[in-house]
Design goal:
The protein has 259 residues and is an alpha/beta fold. It is built from 6 helices and 15 strands. Strand 5 and strand 6 form a beta hairpin. The chain binds S-adenosylmethionine.
Length: 259
Amino acid sequence: MKFDNTVVVFKSNNTKHLSVIQEDQTFVTQNGTIKHNDIKTLPTKVKTSKDQEYEVYIPSFDEFILLMKRGPQIIYPKDIGSIIISGNISKFSNILEIGTGSGALTLYLSLILDKDSNLITLDESNKNQRRAKKTIERYISSNHAGTKISEIEYLNLQLSDFIFDDVSNKVDTVITDIPEPWEFFDNNSVKQNLQWVSYLPSITQVQKIVTELSNNKFININVTETLNREWIVDNRIVRPKNEMVGHTGFVVSGRFLFS
Ligand SMILES: C[S@@+](CC[C@H](N)C(=O)[O-])C[C@H]1O[C@@H](n2cnc3c(N)ncnc32)[C@H](O)[C@@H]1O
């Protein structure tokens, strides 16, 4: 079957569901069923057994990470944008990510980094890393089958047991999404050019990492929060939506330049 194992969105007027196409399987909705075998092209429009139209297509990155089954809380797409700019990240970056979690950020980084760049991701939870690895492989095989992406090195470790010198020659950027990123400095001192970015939900955590970065001679320390307001633009209705995603997290960035 042509689209076997492809991740798709089933979209009706008011709902979106993520699903994996599999031979002889059926997608069940409140408005009837769709046989996976009837999906012959992508993107496509199909009718359910109750004559309701659905659009079926391969998800964009943000649809995929917002709709996917996940473990730990992901970084929202709007905050990934902010992390990329705050961290001065380009395809040439060599990144150590602390807190693989559900792999949302890891996936995005693997999509933008050059295939020769380094991407190392650390997490104390083997379960989370295994789930993240599967998620990333599934997205890549659906959206970019056959494309060579940067290899991801998974380190299954607690930050308190991590020795930065073991990987420092492969890293110019550290991104953290864990509750206590300052633990990094308990065992490690930075001796090289390094860009630092921490994603943190609470302002007391922000205060602590800012203090720690200053004590460790980081400069240009910046704290930002990104609020995204969606608008409805539909004939005569032109206004912001009533609801929005409010606070998610703060992005703290800084640079270490001189030892
Ligand atoms: C919020 S999740 C990261 C989510 C991820 N950024 C994403 O977008 O999917 C935090 C992860 O950090 C890991 N973690 C928390 N504290 C840690 C520590 N001290 N050392 C290593 N991993 C830690 C947890 O196991 C969890 O998987």
